[in-house]
Write the structure tokens for this entry.
Amino acid sequence: MDATILGLLLLDGVQSGVVYGLLALAMVLVFAVTRVILVPIGELMMFAPLSLVWLMAGKLPGTLALALALGLLWSLLDRRPWPLLLAGGLFLLALPARGLLPLAYPLALLLVVYLSLATYRVFFQPLKEATVLALLILAVGLHVAYQGLGLVFFGPEQHRPEPLLRGEVLVGLSWQGVLVLLYALLAVLALYLFFRLSLYGKALLAAAENRLGARLYGIRPEEAGMVAFAIAGLMAGLSGLLLAPITNAAYFMGFMLGLKGFVAAILGGLVSYPVAFLGALLVGLFESFTSFFASAYKEALVFLLLLPALFYQSLRAHAVEE
Amino acid sequence: MKRLILAALFLALSALAQGTLKVGVVVSATGPAASLGIPERNTFLLIQEILDRTGGVAGRKVQFVILDDASDTTQAVRNTRRLVEEGAVAILGTTTTPASLGMIPVVAEAKVPKISLAASKDIIHPVDAQRFWVFKTPQTEELMARAIVADMVARGIKTVGYIGFNDAYGEGWARFFEAEAKAKGLQVVVSERYNRTDTSVTGQALRIIARRPEAVLVGASGTPAVLPQRTLRERGYGGLIYQTHGVANPDFLRVGGKDVEGTLLPAGPILVAEQLPSAFPSKRVALDYIQRYEAKHGIGSYSTFGAHAWDAWLILKPALERALKKADPDKDLAAFRAALRDEIEATKGLVATHGVFTFSKEDHLGLRFEDAAVMVQVEGGRWKLIRTFR
């Protein structure tokens, strides 16, 4: 092991770490506001690049059908036509977007945000009084369902969208990798500013801190949940789109990414944003180094990280329930 | 649905007609192994069409009953039971190794011959009381590992590295490849694992490069086999890269693109049928299959997996003809099944799309290495024949 290898391993660890980190941030945000552990976030992440590949191949992705179906349920629940009209709008947009990168890219992103919102409205919001465990069971069910739908929509093989930027900056770091790192930095910064400066962000934090108190100040928890899911969908979609040219995308990829984001979120106790993000970096680095030293046991060792964290959390646990 | 009703109707009618032979088929037409199972199913439908046109085997109608196991072992076992109860004279399938292994006790208990379409050597080796009833058509890891090592030796390679799936596929390849390499004086200097869902294999790639092997074998299948190869190339690895025959499908080339140029892999000769020398025994049979399959599904649609199904039928058909002379399935089904098994085992020198089959009491794969494996290289996004072992 020399300095070059060390440098490359660090770089690789940071690159995967920031992606887990963004997923972890989204999970912490969603959990804080809605008490939903967003297990299917990995699937939402993978829907984005696969939809993009389908659009670029001139085909309509199956995720559009899912959006229409969820849109219909949403409209029925709300007794208003606009959610379905919105899904229809996405469908109409998809027709000219086929084969055109500048159109297909934002469309794939919008689609994932829409799916994220619809998932909240259709599945989680009706259960807002349910226990954390019930919500978790529902989330796991959705993860299984979305993964299965991914297989139906996109087939069993991997796909690779063209990278936005080609070439390598220096050994071990491609321009696309720089894009991922830049995006992570910007996303963290944007979230920070959003929560610190905007009224909406502050309202969201308030809702996360104390649901009842927030409601007394006129913050609707449903609306806060919508915003949290929209942000989570946006972050998942963007991460997926930027990451897929480096790693390939397939229906089965979401679970592991989501799970590692979850490990990081757990390291942060599902409440702390900076600890969750640092935890994600730790997971990424740990993974990179174990894959060098003991590749056959990598996954086992990464999830072994959970044990001391869970132990620590259980020692200092205090009642977070209202 | 309409097709299903028609098929059921046809089944009911044909059951009335005396002398219809039912052949049970299990394939993975859906689920993760679908890209292998679909061409297999298409091939059986193609055979059915030909049989309906030409009047079956030895004057008897033949009816394929094709069931989907959804790449799932439990479903495959259930399907097998059903086919046995419905009076199938033989079972063909299934696509994957775990499910094929699961079917063995069922066919052995019911004493029905079975020809598997999955790769692992464990399906037919050793030939014990249960595997007595089981045969298979695809090449084993062991046979293909021999081709890879032979190619490495011919190129004067001394040190090799291995990176494979952290599951039964990767472990099986590690076992057979490392044994064969050792026997031929090659040194395996590094052996790494990764998961098909991994998004980065940088750590493993760096470890391989640090040991400086002259060649690397990637023990993986399908599109997830691209990632280690791309990572090795991006990190500046300049040696030869070998893949297994598990990547011999167009998806690998599509996802791999420029990164997989120059890849060496062993394959069934049908993958490059047109480029085979005209004296190659399986060339004519392979081209015949390709032409029939492509006439129905389009140019470039054939795969090596569908050809395994075609081979299973090439073996079964003459065995059926011979067994019909010994026993009558309408009078004594058990005796006919036993006679059919004996006749399959008696297959000698049968030229098929993937090679020449000669079964024996100890060998239920029956492929001769020289006829069943060729080395292929990816060149300009196509498979190019570079070596036969004849």
Notes: The CA atoms of residues 191 and 200 of chain A lie 12 Å apart. Chain A has 14 helices and two strands.
